[in-house]
Amino acid sequence: MSSQSATTQPVSVDRPEAAQAAFPERGVPQIGRVNRRGLWTLYMKEVRRFFKVQTQTIWAPALTTLLFLVIFTVAFGRSDREILGVNFATFVAPGLIAMGMMNNAFANSSFGLLVGKIQGTIVDYMMPPLSEAEMMVAIVGAAMTRAVLVGGAVALAMAFYPGVELSAEHPWAIAWFGLMGALMLSLAGLITSMWAEKFDHNAAVTNFIISPMTLLSGTFYTIHNLSPLFQGISRANPFFYVISGFRYGFLGQSDIGDAAHVLWASLGLLAFNAVLGYVTYRLLKSGWKIRS
Description:
Elements: H1 17-22, H2 36-51, H3 54-76, E1 82-83, E2 86-87, H4 88-109, H5 112-119, H6 123-126, H7 132-159, H8 171-195, H9 199-215, H10 228-235, H11 238-251, H12 259-286
Antiparallel strand pairs: 1-2
Helix pairs in contact: 2-7, 3-4, 3-7, 4-7, 4-8, 4-9, 4-11, 7-8, 8-11, 8-12, 11-12
């Protein structure tokens, strides 16, 4: 009987293309310089968080802002009273829209990290393969999304309010100052969320800093009625330029001045937000009051 060699030769089996796609070669990075999928996932998480309770986060703020319009037009808005060439209701409406956008941008971005620290789920933000810049963009982007939705809801409600006539004289100013205001308050909210250790800290910033600066920014009046001292104080308030620039987009005029002054104000807000964004990024990078 002839004996055959018992040794077996290894069989080379090519992997299917699907398997090769599912299991890439070792050492090949799967996340590029920007983790787009991770950034989008965190952004959608933040959006869905406030959208699940949209009655509280979008429609309730819109109703509250509309009540401001009702109260102030009834109390101060005589039918023959004009400010900047328009009736009182039309003058106040753009400022209220911008105010609602800024307040809700701050409320959204100042909530996420704070809740994570209190509930012990901050690791959900820190463990995923996201850079500090990507995390900041996702959180700030979600807060700005909420601001735009609230602004749209308020504008829609005011379009049906008697006496309000909103026309886009300068659409670029509406978009620019609205987004710059939302960005500014989103960044401020994120810094507050890092700093705060309990909800009282967050509420203190809202009640003693954000609300006064918003209400004293020319939302309900023109600063030309103030004394020179308080006019100077108002012009040192960045909220004033957001409100007045946003109003310029609707009415074609504002407390800032002519078109050249409005343009300089828009560039000033861009520079201010760039500095604020850099500070926010450095605080996130350092793990200030986040990492133990």
